[in-house]
Amino acid sequence: MSSAIIVIPCFNEEKRLEVLQFRKYALSHPEHQFLFVNDGSSDRTALILDDLKESVPESFDVLHLSQNQGKAEAVRQGMLRAFETDVDYAGYWDADLATPLDMIPEFTEQLDQTTQLTLVIGARVKLLGRQIERKKLRHYLGRIFATAASTVLQLPIYDTQCGAKLFRVSQESRTLFSKRFLTNWIFDVELLARARQLEKFYQCDSLEATVYELPLKRWQDVAGSKVKPHDFLKAFIELCSIYWNYLRPSLNKPFATLAVGSNPDKIRKAA
């Protein structure tokens, strides 16, 4: 079975971290590991994570950041650590488990079955037979933002902000995380913008062919979310920054300098 590491960014998650759910999943899926990134928490999160690692070291690991740097940097640091290991896939998941852990095998199965895919993204689509529970205000604001993000990226994507994503481990995936993000609230969109640049400057395969949105069976808003309605205004400001730094037509310099081999579809190394 394919191996995977799931990065879990954590900031003051003492009251929300479902330790038993992680333990239960780890027992039934030993091929999947979890890397918790403690983003400078000021509560007992660090102690809880260290205890979890000590209890099942083959399934759990912890990366402690000395001070709070925000979710974007916590995810980036975790993903860089994950890419250093010998696994097939690496991704990140929200600590509150709004997306249940039992969805992970569906993500890995999609990558197993379709070899040209490099990224599977969870999509919160409310369909009959699926349990997608979102607050109405956040849902409608989210749909407005998703439409704007899709327009800026020129990509027919439904849900950029779902906190469940899994990447095939490759040099291209590593490159996406090679530099610190300009944004914090919508770094997921920035990741896709960086991938667009790989298409433009290095003739990599198109996102339409390599990214798959997987409709989730279950998702629910969890009490205590750090995202507030007014943060959507910040998101639109950051979206403008992404367009200007990555996607404007006059841009002639990529976010990272890469060496490309004789096969233009394969990136050999990041400078």
From TrEMBL:
UniProt gene name: pgaC_2
Recorded GO MF terms: glycosyltransferase activity
Name of the featured protein: dolichyl-phosphate beta-glucosyltransferase
Family (UniProt): Belongs to the glycosyltransferase 2 family.
Entries under Gene3D superfamilies matching the protein: Spore Coat Polysaccharide Biosynthesis Protein SpsA, Chain A
Entry's EC annotation: 2.4.1.117
Keywords noted in UniProt: Endoplasmic reticulum, Glycosyltransferase, Membrane, Signal-anchor, Transferase, Transmembrane, Transmembrane helix
Catalysed reactions, semicolon-separated: a di-trans,poly-cis-dolichyl phosphate + UDP-alpha-D-glucose = a di-trans,poly-cis-dolichyl beta-D-glucosyl phosphate + UDP
Enzyme class: transferase
InterPro entries in UniProt: DPG_synthase, Glyco_trans_2-like, Nucleotide-diphossugar_trans
Localization in the cell: Endoplasmic reticulum membrane
Pathway: Protein modification; protein glycosylation
Membrane-topology descriptor: Single-pass membrane protein
Glycosyltransferase 2-like domain ranges (all copies): 6-169
The UniProt record lists the keyword Transcription regulation: no
